Structures are given as C-alpha cells and as structure tokens.
Amino acid sequence: MLQNIGITGIIMILVLVLILFGPSRLPELGRAVGRTLFEFKSSARELVGDSKDEEDSVKKID
Fold this sequence. Notes:
Blueprint: H1 7-21, H2 26-61
C-alpha cells in the first residue's frame, strides 16, 4: 500500500500536515514521534533479548 506513494504524494502529505498543525506545532509533533519510535524500538529489543535469554537458559538446563 505504501509502496505506491511517490514524491508528490509525500509532498502533499507534508503540506497537509503543515496546514493542519501549523509551523509552531511541527517540532513538538516530531519530538513526540521520535520518542514513540525510540520507546517502541527499545521495547522490541527487550522482548527479543528476553526470548534469547530464555532460549539460552533452556539449552543450558538440557
């Protein structure tokens, strides 16, 4: 679905966001999106790390 969006589509989306939120709110939105992505990535890393630790502990027991 997102593969069909070209440069023009991205520019149109950015212009729409600029119109809706205004230039003063864009840095706040960017920070919020960045924090959300950072939290998501760190949570995903924890889950993957936990599952690998559990696999290692099961292998050591056997």
